[in-house]
């Protein structure tokens, strides 16, 4: 769906009858429209996931903590924080997908190195990861998200560096 929406954005932006605007909001509203003369000139993402080139500028919008996700029936579900070392005794769900930010995937793999191979479940997309966690096969590490359903709990990992999330745009787009 990300690829489809990107292609559609390019098609619609090239039509003279369609005006493209980009507005981001959380606690404030930011009009990013001047940065996107072409929709490909503006990307949202985690700082470490997109390589910077000479003509690309990164602007942080906010920082997102890394969290352990567990099913609501897990003994850790009531915890307010966890150390990554506590997860060495748990089954781990690891996701090899570009949908998982690099720093989250690195932490998943560091934890998986401390547990037996039979306690590690590997999947290739975020939906499979969430399904395995919901089913109780193990826990995982992801940036903090807000889930619509209440069957998953998110627990911040102590001592982990929050991920920088923001926009990438071309210098000449300003």
Characterization of the model:
This protein is an alpha+beta fold. Helix content is 19%, strand content 29%. It has three helices and ten strands. Strands 3-10-4 form a three-stranded antiparallel β-sheet, with no helix packed on it. A hairpin with a 3-residue loop joins strand 1 and strand 2. The mean pLDDT is 82.
Oligomeric assembly = single chain
Sheet with most strands: strand arrangement: 3-10-4
Distance between the termini: 28 Å
Using only CA atoms, what is the Rg?
Answer: 19 Å
Order of helices and strands: HEEEEEEHEHEEE
Total DSSP helices: 3
Indicate the proportion of strand residues. Answer: 25-35%
Gist?
The protein is an alpha+beta fold. The chain is built from three helices and ten strands.
Attribute tags:
174 residues; alpha+beta; three-stranded antiparallel sheet; single chain; elongated
